[in-house]
Amino acid sequence: MQLAMIGFGQAGGKIVDKFLEYDQHTGSGIVRSAVAVNTAKADLLGLERIPEENRVLIGQARVKGHGVGADNELGAEIAEEDIDEVQGAIDNIPVHEIDAFLIVAGLGGGTGSGGSPVLAKHLKRIYTEPVYGLGVLPGGDEGGIYTLNAARSFQTFVREVDNLLVFDNDAWRKTGESVEGGYEQINDEIVRRFGVLFGAGEVGTGDDVAESVVDSSEIINTLSGGGISTVGYAAESVEMGSGGLLSRFKGDEEGSMESANTTNRITSLVRKAALGRLTLPCEIDGAERALLVVSGPPKHLNRKGIERGRKWLEEQTGSMEVRGGDYPVEEPNVAAAVLLSGVHNVPRIKELQQVAIEAQDNIDDAASLVVVGPAVAITVAGDQPDPTEVGEDVSMTITLEEPFADAPDQWTLRGESELDDASWTVTTIEQGRTIDTSEYGSATFEQDLDIENGATVVEITVEGTAPEMTEFNYDNVDAERFTVASIGRATDGNVNTIESWEVRRFTQDSNEARQAIADAEEVVAGSDSEEARNLLGDAKAFYANEEFDRAIDNAEQAGETAEQASSSLPLLPIAGGAVVLIVVVAGVLYYRKQQQSGYKLQ
């Protein structure tokens, strides 16, 4: 399969550079053209094999060649503004000679995660060739902003490409490994797996001809239908030797034994590839389509082993669309690459889904902050509490800077919290030096502050557990909130609220019911079914009565009824269960943004 590869952002450019190295080493010829796009000039200069004329620096007017600093909204805006510059490099690609475009990007940063969906949408509008994505998810230890970027970019990218191949760094980084060494190893793994997959069928003059050919059409058919894909890989060293196509049909006893060993090796490798470490770990049952490619010296390949491996994949996935073939290469190992397309049961994606939901809740929480009275220079040191399960421990730290600015020289600091077993720690600080620390073991506290004590900063920490729910109301989230902390200033008998922080609380059952209703609400909104709306209303009523199992059942029925009523209007151009997955990740806010004019990350 011949590809036009476009590396978007730092990770994408490095991976495409590594693909070119693989091409030069193996002679596979899968990279027909290579382009790198970035907002950081230094990243483009660090590439070794992508031609300089194909390195595109965008956003110079906005970020001066210094990158977007993990801001993927800015990355998307720049990509949209400078899409003509990217197109200028793509114009040099002999599109009539390629089978597909492959956009490669890390989904945790700013340029790649923001710009790659923009480019995918642009290419699909202009060209008839398939546009695939290769998205790399960040490791969990890379920081919250990168995980949030990935959650937002993932659902946008998968919608814009014909199929999204995914590699999860979290499943591949080794404990104690250096960042640079870890990414180098990961890039090698990416290229090795996808190199075998895309290299199948690219046979040059004088090369051995595959016994069961896998060509680009087989790969395209496997990736058709959209959704997300993962790749498994396993290899075993073998001795090189003479042979070829005729050696596969030996009839003597020695040949029969060798053939049996070859068959067993191939079937074993297929199992290891599918059940071992996938690029995106998931349960393989339920995969909509699969493709098996077995590569190695011709004498170590046979049709029987490939056919057995293919049938085993059919049994394991439950799919009737399982293709397979061999890819003869003169290398001292036999390898099996298994492409699983349209996968659904993916824990990592469910994790990203939860990140998107919590991000939406945090946006709602931020909108609910109340500030009354004189302005005070106040910042939150540390993360504001996320939506919290009842009974879960909660801790929050608040910092008041310049507490006597626009205030009397003496005033009383007051704190209130609805946390159970609430306790407070108040520390006064002068120029980084602790003056005093006081502790209070109740829901409220008061502490006098005096400018003569020299405090330039007051640090307040509140701890406790999320209280029981007093009301369940799906349409009124405020009813489910509670006050983590409210800080006020008392002077001359008057109390002014400086700031108050509220978060949503939930039980495990109520959260599952709320998510089920939210999913159904999106589907019902696009339907004219009165029955679906009634079922949804009943689900909300059951939710309010704390009958959560019945709420979930009704929500699911509402969604199914709405889908049946509007089956001619698919929600998103992706296959099967991936529709539900991406809708959940998008969330209500992202869906609404999507309806607005212009291009924004969802």
Give the low-confidence spans: 175-179, 242-254, 366-380, 568-600
Cα Rg:
29 Å
> What value does the average pLDDT take?
83
Task: For the record, give the distance between the C-alpha atoms at the N and C termini, rounded to a whole number.
Answer: 32 Å
Total helices: the number is 16
Large-scale geometry: globular
Write a structural description:
There is one protein chain. With 602 residues, the protein is an alpha/beta fold. It contains 16 helices and 20 strands. Helices cover 39% and strands 25% of the residues. The strands form 3 sheets. Strands 3-2-1-4-5-6-7-10-8-9 form a 10-stranded mixed beta sheet, with helices on both faces. Strands 11-13-18-15-16 form a 5-stranded antiparallel beta sheet, with no helix packed on it. Strand 2 (31-38), helix 2 and strand 3 (55-57) form a beta-alpha-beta unit. Helix 13 (508-525) packs across helix 16 and helix 14 (530-544) runs antiparallel to helix 15 (548-565). The longest helix has 23 residues, at 253-275. The two termini are 32 Å apart. 46% of the residues are buried.
Task: State the gist of this model.
The chain is 39% helix and 25% strand. The chain is α/β, with parallel strands linked by helices and 602 residues long.
List the main descriptive attributes of the protein structure presented here.
602 residues; alpha/beta; 25% strand; disordered C terminus
Write the SSE topology.
Elements lengths: L2 E6 H18 L4 E8 L2 H5 L9 E3 L2 H4 L8 H10 L1 H8 L9 E7 L4 H16 L4 E7 L6 H17 L2 E6 L10 H21 L16 H8 L4 E10 L15 H23 L13 E8 L6 H15 L4 E7 L4 E9 L5 H21 L10 E2 L8 E2 L3 E9 L8 E7 L3 E11 L2 E8 L3 E7 L6 E9 L15 E11 L2 E13 L1 H18 L4 H15 L3 H18 L12 H17 L8
Helix pairs in contact: 1-6, 1-8, 4-6, 6-7, 7-12, 7-16, 10-11, 12-16, 13-14, 13-15, 13-16, 14-15
